[in-house]
Amino acid sequence: MSGPADPQSAGAAYWEPLWQEGRRYRTIDAAEADALRRRLGPGRDRPALDIGCGEGALTAQLHRLGYRTTGIDCAPTAVASARGNHPDLDFRVHDFGIDDPALLPHPAFTAITCRLVFRWVTDRDTFLSRVRDLLTPGGTFWVVTSVHDPAQGPPKPWDLSAEEADRLTTAWSGVHPTELTPSFHCYALRP
């Protein structure tokens, strides 16, 4: 079984079959965990939202930093896996692009994370507007994504172009990039 051809427009219809087939994604390594800790700092029991939580690794990392975390994903199989991996944390089936933000457990979040997801977002302007609306003053939007590095050859389907990365980081008062590899970047964005 495979999903529709266009992951950007399909949401759960695309991602759920991949999770059911056992597809898994890049794990969080020590360098990425360290960048997250340095840029987000201690949670002090403040709320954090992990968009596209998958199996819950980033949600759990936020929890270890002291955040009150909620992980959301549009794929029920991913959420079930996250709940199995981290039974003490809050995971919900929720499509951030279309579901009502009022269904989330908090009206605002100190940290919102989006790891390996932004590339597949169809309406990025609306997505970023929702993120900004949900961030507390002084909050951080943490994005982890692959960005095409021409030295690495042709772009991969999961790469953002340099122009897309520039658009992602526009209109934030603070932009703090961390390059983990030439094509794997983290961005701490502040409104």
Give structural attributes.
191 residues, alpha/beta, Rossmann fold, 27% strand, disordered N terminus
Summarize the SSE layout with pairings.
Layout: H1 7-10, H2 12-20, H3 30-40, E1 47-51, H4 57-64, E2 68-73, H5 76-85, E3 90-93, E4 109-115, H6 124-134, E5 135-147, E6 159-160, H7 162-169, E7 174-181, E8 184-190
Parallel strand pairs: 1-2, 1-4, 2-3, 4-5, 5-6
Antiparallel strand pairs: 5-8, 7-8
Walkthrough of the structure:
- GO terms for molecular function: methyltransferase activity.
- Keywords: Methyltransferase, Transferase.
- The protein has helices at 7-10, 12-20, 30-40, 57-64, 76-85, 124-134, 162-169, and strands at 47-51, 68-73, 90-93, 109-115, 135-147, 159-160, 174-181, 184-190.
- It is of the alpha/beta class and 191 residues long.
- Strands 1, 2, 3, 4, 5, 6, 7 and 8 form an eight-stranded mixed beta sheet that branches.
- α6 (124-134) links the parallel β4 and β5 (135-147).
- It is globular and about 45 Å long.
- Mean pLDDT is 92; it is low at 1-5.
- What share of the residues does DSSP label as strand, in percent? 25-35%
CATH superfamily: Vaccinia Virus protein VP39
Structural class: alpha/beta
Which stretches are low in confidence, meaning pLDDT under 50 for 5 or more residues running? 1-5
Q: What proportion of the residues is helical, as a percent range?
A: 25-40%
Q: What does the largest sheet look like?
A: 8 strands, mixed
Helix-strand pattern, N to C? HHHEHEHEEHEEHEE
How much is the radius of gyration in Å? Answer: 16 Å
> What is the level-2 CATH architecture name?
3-Layer(aba) Sandwich
By CATH reckoning, the class would read Alpha Beta
Number of strands: 8
pLDDT averaged over residues: 92
Molecular shape: globular
How many domains in all? 1
What's the CATH topology name? Rossmann fold
Counted by DSSP, the helix tally is 7
N-to-C terminal Cα separation, in Å? Answer: 41 Å
